[in-house]
Amino acid sequence: MKRSGWAGKLLQGLYNYFLFFFLSAFLVSCTTMLFVSVLSASLEVTLTEENLQMAAKLTFLNVVLISTLFTLVDVVRRKLTTEKVTRHITTAAREIVKGDFDVRIAPISHFSADENYNVIIDCFNTMASELASVETLRTDFIANVSHEMKTPLTVMQNYGRLLQTPDLSEEKRVEYAKAITDASRRLSDMMTNILKLNRLENQQIYPRAEVYDLGEQLCESLLQFEDVWEARGIEIDTALEEQILVSADRELLLLVWNNLFSNAFKFTEQGGRVRLSLAAEGEYAVVRVEDTGCGMSPEVGAHIFEKFYQGDTSHASQGNGLGLALVKRVVDILQGEIGVESTVGVGTAFTVRIRRVENALEEAR
Prior knowledge:
The chain is α+β, with helices and mostly antiparallel strands. Among the domains are: 2-100, no CATH class; 209-364, 2-Layer Sandwich (Heat Shock Protein 90), CATH 3.30.565.10. Helix content is 62%, strand content 13%. The chain is elongated. The chain starts with a helix and ends with a helix.
């Protein structure tokens, strides 16, 4: 490897030398011939063969000297500018390959190298920063998945061991079996959400747009939670404008409403209230889901769309922190907007904005 490197440098040096040699030979020969011609004409001196031979030898020596000087200057210039900068970049790149994403390259002086190297350095530092973020997300994702899987598996193991207890009453057997079933369902739901989120993030799910009434879909989704609100005495308040049509993937958008309603009922106390509204605002259909639950602080609200984030630890056993991440990704894919307003002890309101089909038809025209 070293021999081939030195051989490459030697060949590059010879190439540069002969390049300077031929360039110098051309320039020196032309200037010498012009100088001699003008001098002999003005002084009326006749040049002999001996004079010409001497001039040719001196010219050749000058060409060799100038070529050597230019080659040495070029080598020093490359060492101080190009090779120094590329050595820093390749050294940092090797650190990236080893997994050190914290490495950064300092910008170079405007006088020590080409300014274009700073463009490359900026791109390199940006790449390293993005890779560091991705690595952090990957590490956190693995840690969170491991933690979330461990909890239901532990529950299943413990209750499975209890089921093996001799003379276990029928009541306890049903209770333990239900706990195992709930834990396995939670584990299954988490795996399903992880697969969905992965497919959405890698754009393996392509929206199939169809025109439909958004109000009807919201009612259908809300009615799926009828048993929940009746059992807990939660008041339902709806304000839905009619004939609001959207052009979107019905299944993906249903995923959004199901998750928002699930969260609203999950965090609303007994006898609370959940309100659903749908209105047309300009080119958008605006859906708002409000609850009178525990609410959350601004610090928690800033992270709720992150994967596996659970701000309210008292409800950690009821979810895996993937629902709102799915919601955010779906809304982004459908080119909509989602926002959240929340006050601790008062409640939370999610607002989703989706383009209405009327406006889409006008744009198509």
